[in-house]
Structures are given as C-alpha cells and as structure tokens.
Design a protein that fits this description.
The protein is an alpha/beta fold. It contains 16 helices and 20 strands. Helix 4 packs parallel to helix 11 and helix 10 packs parallel to helix 12.
Length: 563
C-alpha cells in the first residue's frame, strides 16, 4: 500500500475480479517436407495458398525427360504471370492423355525416380478444407548436380517481345535480375541501351546494345553469345525487334527437383540448428504436425521402410514431448484393408494419444500433369480439423465432415472392413451415395480407453495451454489462501464458459467440473518450497460413435420404440 504524506485526493486501482483466461488457438498446422523453392529449415507462417505459391513455388513441375528439353525451351510462356494457372493457360501445352493410377506396395519404390512431392497437395488440401494458418518447413538443402539443374524448371521473365530464360534450372535462378537502361534518352525504338544481368554476387555487364537487326550489337545476339546466366528467344512468332522498356525485372518460376538422397535426418532435423522437425520446437502456435512428403521419399527410394517408420515415430515423440500438438500420420502407399491393418498392428505398432492415422489415400487431379494421383490424406485432415474448430469447437469430433477438393478415396471401404480397422485406431475415409467423401472416424492411436477419442485429447490440449497461459500472473504472488481463492475463481470462470459452449458433460457446472485449491492441496511442506497446487477435474463430452435405435412391433397401439 502507498504511504501518503501530503494531504489531498488520491485514486487507487484495485483488482475487482478474477483475471480472465482466454482460449488458445487450436488450428495451426505445420508441414515438413520438400518444396520447389524457399528458405531451407526455417518455419514460415503462411495464411493462404497464394502465399505458398509466392514463398515456396506452388505445385512442383515434373522433371524434363530426354528429348523434351529443347521442346520445353522453345515453348512460349508468360513469365510475368503471378499465378501458376494463368501461366499454364498462356503456355497452352499439348494435351496429355490421363495415365492409369499406379498402386504401390510398402516394400517397393517407384522406378525410375521422379520429382513427385506431396507437400504442395497437402497444403492445398489444408486451405481448401478450411485451414487458416500453417507453418512450412522446407528440407533437403543439397547442391544440385549438373544433370538436375539441366532437367529442373527454369526461371523466366518477359523482356519486351522476347523471353529471358535462365541457363540453368532450379530455384537459385529466381535471384536473377535484368537491368535495362537507356543510352539515348529512349527517343528511338531502335536506339542504344545497356543490359546488366545479376545473380547473387555475379554481375554481367553486356555493354551497349541496340534493337536493330543484322548488327553484331543486336541485344539478342549479344545476350545469347556472352551471357552465362540467361538466354533470349522470341515470345511469339512475327514479333518486331523493338527495344525493351527501361527498368529492372526479375526471373521467376525456377524450381528445384525432389532431392534424390533425402535421409531420415533431414526430416528429423537438429534442435541446435533449428532444422527439420526439431525447428518446430520453438513454435508454440503449432497444434498439428504433418509430414506428407515422407511418402514421396519412400516411393522414390530415398527412404526404406525402416527409415519411413523411424521418422513417423520421431514425429510422435516430438508431439508427446511438446504436449500441445497432434501428429497426423499417413500409412505407406498402396495398401489394401488387410495390409493397412497388418501394418498398424504388427509392423508400426504405434501407441500414442498424441497421434492419429487416416486411410485410404485420396484421389485428386494434379493441376500440373492433369492426371489422377493418390495423395496422403494428412493435409486435408488438418484442414478439416481447423474447419471443425472454427464452426463447432475443438470439443467436437472432427468426423462426419465432407472432404473438399478430392475425386474419391483411392480404395473404397466396406462396412465390414471398417469394423476391423476402427477399433485399432485407423480412421477411415468413406464415400456414401449422395453425400460425397466423408471422414468416418475420430480415434487416436492410444491403447488407453480414456484417450481413444481424438476430440478428447485435443480438448485437453486446449484446456492445458489456455490455463497455462492465463495463469502466468500467479507466479511470485504471496502463497496464501487469498491467492488460492483467486486461482479457483479464475479457472472456474473459464470452465463455466466451456460448459456453456457444450464442451463439458453435465446438467450443472458442478457435474461438469471441479476446481480444488486450498490448504489440503497446498500443505505447509509445499508452501515452503514455493509450490501452489491446484487440482482440476473435467468431464469432457465424447462423440456418439455408435447410434443405436431399438425397434420392435407395436402391441395394442403402444409404441415400444426405445432410443
């Protein structure tokens, strides 16, 4: 209390009630894997698909095959486009016939190796299904070989009526700029001007050139003969040779191929260097972790089966150690119902209340190749979790929800098959007539009956984090009954609001929860070592997983229907 010495009027502010606890966010996902471009091993928060295209390059381009390189180089494009779809529409590539979907066995890899990556599909599915924010961690930082650079998509830019194309492929060329400055004030369309090309620390001053054809100083001839960074070609036939407009433009569209030698260490990362999965330990907002590109690395032979399972176990370990997030796992590709059951029970044999598993894969249309591909479902499921949290709340099981942006499940599941899969924690994705493709399961991989439901585990994560963040004011307060009473009031007020939202089971708050913080939970021995113990018990709502109607014939007009 202040010590007043001078006569006068004073105003004091006092705490009139408990400090309110605000609920934490529950819908921030994290994706670890390969992208076509972007900074390596730095968790980057994005909020929509457009930002993913800007920072990480969108959907990856397939690698160029022999005989297609020159054809690709001569194909006109619109490099100034900011959208992949617009660029593809202007390039007008020749149509390809859809290819049959290939089934993969868990002990086999696709051959030959391809640059297939599922992370972009997962992020696209996340936002399409209601996701709002996610972290992207790009892995696979290795120098490209000459052959990989040759086959990788090249960065391009529009230079007047010409197209500037990087000499080498890969995202490194996206750092290339072309600076055009006028030497005669820009009064003549064929006048003299200068071209300077830069890429990182390399600068090429190509001197003074002209747009007049047939001369040695023609800018197309000079660039193609002297520059080691770019080359020029006509963007369209019949174009006039005019000088490009003065200014600076940047090349865009270069992409790296899927690394040929990804290891499990690339995914797991290192806590000291903040790389890979370990880099997410410093991000407190994350509540869901997905590693869809683990499947791509398994398919192209970068990882064997043991490494595939080891990375998944490390993802589970990460979530358990953090205690505030869930792992959404993808099974190996190409499994039928019996095989995925055998993998779950006898091979992977995961047992964790912080992990969940969805099957089968989802069939989507690849926007780059226009063929049907089976993608891991983890990204789409993370989006549905986010949508469910926004519309109903984290206490509601994220099931019986339509999966957006998919054609169908890769495997159609029967009721009898799900009867075998559901009890062991394999959440099935099923198609019902007239209802679309639905999420038809909401279980964790835990062997404990109290934690078998996904919404219960996620709701407890939400409660724990909310109470943790909302009671920081307690630290270093006097440890006495007044503090205990304030803690009880604060937490009780928060839980009453959760009960009113339908998150807790019970007709009254007293039936739904209890908060105990008194001299019984805080004996003198605990007070002496600076501890305050508050005991909280809650009754979470659990999903109506099995809805049963018992019907019988009516006797004498009396209804014997029991619900």
């Amino acid at each position: 209390m202040p010590n007043y010495q001078s006569p006068g009027v004073y105003v004091e502010e006092i705490v009139s009630g408990p400090s309110p606890i605000a609920g934490v966010g529950t819908a921030v996902a994290a994706f670890v894997g390969w992208t076509a471009q972007g900074e390596f091993n730095k968790p980057t928060l994005i909020h929509n698909w457009s930002q993913f295209i800007t920072y990480f390059g969108g959907f990856p381009e397939p690698p160029l095959k022999e005989g297609e390189l020159e054809q690709e180089e001569s194909k006109p494009s619109s490099p100034a486009s900011t959208s992949q779809a617009e660029a593809k529409a202007e390039e007008k590539p020749e149509e390809k016939k859809p290819e049959a979907r290939k089934e993969l066995r868990p002990t086999q890899a696709t051959s030959p190796k391809t640059s297939v990556s599922y992370l972009a599909h997962a992020v696209y599915g996340f936002f399409a299904n209601g996701g709002s924010s996610c972290y992207i961690v790009r892995i696979g930082e290795k120098a490209l070989t000459k052959e990989e650079e040759r086959r990788s998509p090249k960065a391009v830019a529009a230079l007047g009526d010409y197209r500037a194309i990087a000499r080498t492929g890969g995202s490194k060329a996206n750092d290339t700029t072309i600076e055009v400055t006028s030497s005669d004030g820009g009064t003549s369309p064929e006048g003299m001007f200068k071209i300077v090309v830069k890429q990182g620390d390399v600068t090429e001053d190509l001197g003074t050139v002209t747009a007049r054809g047939g001369e040695k100083t023609n800018f197309v001839t000079v660039v193609n003969e002297k520059s080691k960074l770019i080359r020029l070609e006509r963007a369209r036939t019949g174009a006039l040779e005019r000088r490009p407009a003065a200014g600076t433009l940047a090349l865009r569209g270069g992409a790296d191929p899927f690394p040929a030698h990804l290891s499990s260490a690339d995914y797991v990362g290192d806590p000291v260097s903040r790389s890979g999965l370990a880099g997410l330990e410093a991000e407190d907002l994350v509540t869901m972790v997905c590693v869809p590109d683990l499947v791509a690395a398994f398919q192209n032979g970068s990882l064997n089966y043991d490494e595939f399972q080891n990375v998944q176990q490390r993802v589970i370990d990460h979530c358990e150690n953090m205690g505030d997030r869930m792992a959404i796992l993808d099974p190996p590709p190409g499994l039928n119902a019996q095989e995925v059951f055998d993998w779950r029970m006898n091979k992977a044999n995961f047992n964790s209340k912080y992990a969940t598993l969805y099957w089968p894969y989802l069939t989507v249309q690849d926007p780059v190749t226009s063929i049907k591909v089976d993608v891991p479902p983890s990204g789409h499921m993370a989006g549905i979790w986010s949508r469910n949290d926004d519309t109903r709340g984290v206490h509601k099981a994220p099931a019986n929800e339509v999966i957006r942006g998919v054609l169908e499940p890769a495997v159609k599941i029967t009721k009898d098959e799900q009867t075998t899969l559901n009890p062991v924690g394999i959440n099935c994705l099923r198609t019902f007539p007239g209802q679309g493709t639905l999420v038809w399961g909401a279980r964790t991989l835990s062997g404990e009956s109290s934690w078998k439901y996904l919404n219960v585990r996620r709701f407890f994560n939400y409660l724990e984090e909310s109470i943790l963040n909302g009671t920081q004011w307690c630290v270093f307060e006097p440890n006495d009954p007044a503090l205990w009473a304030r803690i009880r009031r604060t937490i009780s007020a928060f839980l009453v609001n959760e009960w009113r939202r339908g998150a807790l089971f019970g007709a009254t708050p007293g039936e739904a929860f209890y908060v105990k913080c008194d001299d019984e939970t805080n004996p003198q021995e605990g007070i002496e070592i600076g501890e305050v113990v508050c005991e909280i018990g809650v009754a979470p709502v659990k999903p109506a997983e099995f809805v049963i109607f018992r019907l019988s014939q009516m006797a004498g007009g009396t209804s014997l229907v029991a619900e």
